[in-house]
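Quick one, probably user error.
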């Protein structure tokens, strides 16, 4: 058995014994490791695309800023349905937050940034600066 799994099982036994009764085994109902904030960055000729996993977040929970050539992503969500009368035995999804930041590439424009949250994925598109075509005529003496 892996050490983490053994520690998790020991903790569940401790909680069961602490409350004096057996709690249901919820191991298969939620992931043990979070992928929150996991990021992929791709590039093509016209743009960069930053994809960040934000399961359970909406666009209202996410803030994106550009400061000193740095793209800063902050996200926070809290469970607002907290009951004051219930006895809590386990609470694992009360608050989630993360912050990620990336230095903008030299050829990315700050004006052309678009973002959307869909199906637990935040997608940020950064347009590349268009290179002006330079044409210089040379005078012949």
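Nope, works fine. Designed sequence:
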């Amino acid at each position: 058995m892996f050490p983490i799994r053994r520690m998790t099982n020991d903790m569940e036994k401790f909680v069961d014994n602490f409350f004096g009764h057996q709690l249901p085994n919820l191991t298969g109902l939620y992931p043990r490791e979070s992928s929150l904030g996991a990021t992929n960055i791709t590039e093509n000729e016209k743009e960069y695309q930053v994809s960040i996993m934000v399961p359970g977040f909406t666009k209202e929970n996410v803030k994106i800023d550009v400061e000193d050539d740095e793209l800063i992503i902050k996200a926070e969500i809290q469970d607002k349905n907290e009951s004051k009368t219930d006895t809590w035995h386990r609470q694992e999804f009360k608050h989630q937050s993360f912050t990620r930041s990336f230095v903008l590439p030299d050829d990315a424009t700050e004006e052309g940034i678009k973002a959307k949250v869909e199906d637990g994925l935040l997608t940020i598109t950064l347009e590349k600066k268009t290179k002006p075509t330079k044409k210089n005529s040379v005078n012949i003496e």
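The longest helix spans residues 3-19.
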